[in-house]
Design a protein that fits this description.
Elements (H helix, E strand, L loop, with lengths): L1 H24 L5 H4 L7 H4 L1 H21 L5 H25 L3 H23 L1
Helix pairs in contact: 1-4, 1-6, 4-5, 5-6
């Protein structure tokens, strides 16, 4: 169970690091290819907003990375669940306000991982 959780957390981290790169550093180059529903002329105008969003995604990734280095099992679980919860809430909010696809790529993996962590706690 712990291996599956670690793999899922790693996938979630990698996704958020990709979003950091996309929104902070590649907004005007790669962004228009990814976000085809945004008119191309909006990318230069929204560069600072996208970078801000990217920074927040970086904090989510950093928190999940941090959880791998926490030796105390209780604190590890608490920090992991907190940051997974943040990812899930961000994904649900994004799905409601921007695109339903965000639920599947951001919230659902976090919710599945939260469920596995909670099941793992019951098994111990």
């Amino acid at each position: 169970m712990e291996i599956a959780i670690s793999i899922l957390v790693t996938v979630i981290i990698l996704f958020h690091l990709y979003v950091v790169w996309l929104e902070m550093f590649a907004w005007e180059t790669r962004g228009p290819k990814v976000f085809r529903n945004i008119p191309p002329e909006m990318f230069p105008k929204t560069k600072a907003l996208a970078a801000n969003q990217g920074l927040y995604n970086g904090f989510l990734a950093a928190g999940l990375i941090w959880s791998f280095f926490i030796q105390d099992a209780v604190w590890h679980t608490n920090v992991l669940l907190f940051f997974l919860g943040c990812v899930a809430v961000a994904g649900i909010f994004g799905a409601i306000t921007a695109s339903k696809k965000i639920f599947y790529v951001q919230a659902l993996p976090a919710l599945i991982t939260i469920a596995l962590v909670l099941v793992g706690l019951q098994l111990h």
